[in-house]
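Thread: sanity check for a docking pose with flavin mononucleotide

Original post by kr_44:
Hi all, I'm comparing my docking run against an independent structure prediction. Below are the sequence and the ligand SMILES. Could someone generate the full complex and paste the structure tokens? I mainly care about where the ligand ends up relative to the chain.
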Amino acid sequence: MPQLLHIDSSADLHNSVSRRLTRMFADTWRGQGSGHSVVERDLHRDPLPHLPDAGLHYARRLRTAQEMPDAAAEALQAELIAEVIAADVVVIGAPMYNWSLPSTLKAWLDYIHVLGTTVPFDTADQPLAGTPVVVVSSRGNTYAADGPNGGQDHTVPPVELTLGTSLGMAVTVVTAELTLAGRIAPMAPLAAKAAESLAAAEESVQHLARALG
Ligand SMILES: Cc1cc2nc3c(=O)[nH]c(=O)nc-3n(C[C@H](O)[C@H](O)[C@H](O)COP(=O)(O)O)c2cc1C
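Reply from moderator J.T.:
Ran it for you. Here is the predicted complex with flavin mononucleotide included:
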């Protein structure tokens, strides 16, 4: 029974591009057979509290004597980690907010990135190693490496570093850019490029959902 964990973080519940693309991924996934199940976690509709205690960044055996996180926070962390470990594939909507990622998604990363539990530290344990994760990045502008905003995308790099470099997950990034072309008048001439970017992203998420399913 292949299971998808479908995560959204956009604060836009009406016209979100990342939500449209993650939904397309999940629908394509479901379309592959009744055994293809989906677990949804909407980090905007149902936000996590910010990480309440630095001790949660470490497995219990690695904490100092002063680090005694609240039992409810530990239980929430265990639930989030178990949820992602149970997934065969993960898709994450990651809009660019102020050159960075939504705080709701950052909170989720803070809970699941745990030295000695999900990240190898004093042992080689890396339970998420190899799990495919598709990160759907939507952004109002363009951040092409060779353009004037090259190097200013601080949304995707921390997600790739956390999930890929540290947790060992197999990260694929799908980008839809120039999403504000239809909203900001001076960007109107970029509408065709925005449509092109969205069409390519739609094709990518459908292809990936089939390939990973
Ligand atoms: C709080 C906020 C901050 C934003 N900051 C940026 C930004 O720094 N750079 C950018 O290109 N677009 C920015 N945008 C535009 C969004 O990236 C764009 O609307 C994107 O499509 C949002 O994803 P969504 O469509 O899935 O909601 C911002 C939007 C919001 C709501």
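The chain has a mean pLDDT of 97. Hope that helps with the comparison, let us know if your pose agrees.
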